[in-house]
Write a structure and sequence with these properties.
single chain, alpha/beta, Rossmann fold, 9 helices, 13% strand, binds thymidine-5'-diphosphate
């Protein structure tokens, strides 16, 4: 089973994934946690280029291609081998991030992004946990964590577009989307997510 976690900045994904991983182990379900962009040595190198605040001139198309390249490498090196061993894969961001950020907020369009993600498209997640949160709240949380990356530094209107993009995607991919309201404490977020996941995977 392949489960991805999506949401804007400061949505609590990272802490949530740790808790879900522990819950799966407690239920005797071996799992790995990983992230995008990155998750393997080569993909992490691509991540460095993508998130470097000095790369402000990177073209939107190049950005989308690099996210797709990092994704393909990570898929082949980490995700597919783990799935082949029957491990549950919990991935912090995947294809939907490219659709929401590059396709919708950068306006490249879903179709163009799907085309350049041809390899990932063959391996869609079974479930996508989308944490919906007001970007104003999320950015405040992310800012208090310290260092901001190139995409965090985009204007509020960009992050609002990202949220709209995710809400569009949740309609298109209704069957795999679990929408969780993220305007709550971390404990509450964990509890709600585990309750929803329990219904579909236990
Ligand atoms: P990261 O620090 O991992 O963000 P977060 O903690 O919010 O998950 O940075 C990844 C950034 O890259 C984040 O702003 C989302 C963005 N991104 C895309 O724009 N497209 C993509 O395909 C992916 C995977 C991430």
């Amino acid at each position: 089973m392949f489960i991805t976690f999506e949401g804007g900045e400061g949505s609590g994904k990272t802490s949530l994934i740790k808790a879900v991983s522990k819950w799966l182990f407690d239920n005797n379900l071996p799992n790995i946690t990983t992230r995008e962009p990155g998750g393997s040595e080569i993909a992490e190198k691509i991540r460095d280029i993508l998130l470097d605040v000095d790369n402000e001139n990177i073209a939107f198309e190049t950005e989308a291609l690099l996210f797709a390249a990092a994704r393909t490498q990570h898929l082949k090196e980490v995700v597919l081998p783990a799935l082949a061993e029957n491990q549950v894969v919990l991935c912090d961001r995947y294809l939907d991030s490219s659709l929401a950020y590059q396709g919708y907020a950068r306006k490249l369009g879903f179709e163009a992004v799907l085309k350049i993600n041809y390899f990932a498209l063959k391996h869609l997640p079974n479930f996508t946990v989308y944490i919906d949160i007001d970007p104003k709240v999320g950015l405040k949380r992310a800012g208090s964590r310290g260092k901001l990356n190139r995409l965090d530094l985009e204007e509020l209107s960009f992050h609002q577009k990202v949220r709209e993009g995710y809400l569009e995607l949740s309609k298109i991919y209704q069957d795999r989307y679990l929408i969780i309201d993220g305007n709550c404490s971390l404990n509450n977020l964990i509890e709600k997510t585990i309750n929803e996941l329990a219904k579909v995977i236990l």
